[in-house]
Amino acid sequence: MSVQVASKPLVDADDGRMIKPVAALEMKGVHKGYGSVQALQPTSFRIEQGEVLTLLGPSGSGKSTLLGLAAGIVNPDGGTIHFNGEDVTDRPTHLRGIGMVFQRYTLFPNKTVAENVAFPLEVRKRPRREIAERVAHFLDLVSLSKEADRYPSQISGGQAQRVALARAIVFEPALLLMDEPLGALDRRLRQSLQDEIRRIQQTTKVPTLYVTHDQEEAMHLSDRIAVVRDGRIAAIGAPRQIYDNPASRWIAAFLGDVNARDVDTWHDREDGYVIATIEGGIEAVVRISDAARDAERATLVVRPERCQISMHPTQAHNSFRGVVVSTSFLGPVQRVRVATDSGWEVLATVPGHAAPAESGSIAYCEFEPSAALIVPQV
Asked: Is residue 20 predicted with pLDDT exceeding 80?
């Protein structure tokens, strides 16, 4: 049984121009306030057919408001919401054709696994044979065929979440909404289910809006990530794009460990890099973002995994002498902190099999010019 959603470019009948396919979800200028609190500033974004877009941000950033707007649980103060080109701004939740998965599984305790998955089809009065075929197909998709006759109390938390996922997509929703679905599970099970969710979504191609505050989860599951901050989308793009090229110091730090240092001055080189004088009076050859060129204040950021530790300098630029403060062995990697002579304490993540850097020893922390970026200090 195929449940894939076709996504073909549209052609303008008049002049043959190729135009964008209709978005699965498009919000245009939506905003929402609660009394004197503006929970969401005017915001526009779209989810393409077959895509997973994750809303990533801290508590209170506006993620839940955006999800509620998509679900029809929250009414916008302004702007419009479109599903597959249709305006659904005023359409109630039960008429939007959405599937939803939450942190709590919300399975019917008096129904079997198969009966839980069948429920959305029964409500829609699908033929009995179709219901049986689709339930069997989706239980196989989530690897729960053998648990079909069990009750929710007889299966594990991870299995229950897979039942909830099968129930949410069995009727081929226009959009799947997932709100912190793995938040109640332990780390190992979360990682396993991340793989399962990604596999199932790529098989079904159901467009998905996923909400989490877990950066690693967002990186693993998403085609694109929208970083939400203070009721705005602060950045949106592919995981690698926003991680390697953060729009600001805040985004760089929110997405993972980062070494940051204020930039005093900079000037261009002919090869496209800039020479930056950073706090402490040292120079570094690095990249610079367009936004940083116009910013009042700027910061140099470099990821720990892009830094190397050497007992002797190995390159002409970006080689900073210092003293090893600490080394933490984490199995696959080691985290080494070096207090440089300029006062910048740098964290480097190096392979676990590398020779350990002894605390108190002299070392050089180095990185390539392409590894570091100057961004706005906001």
From this structure: no
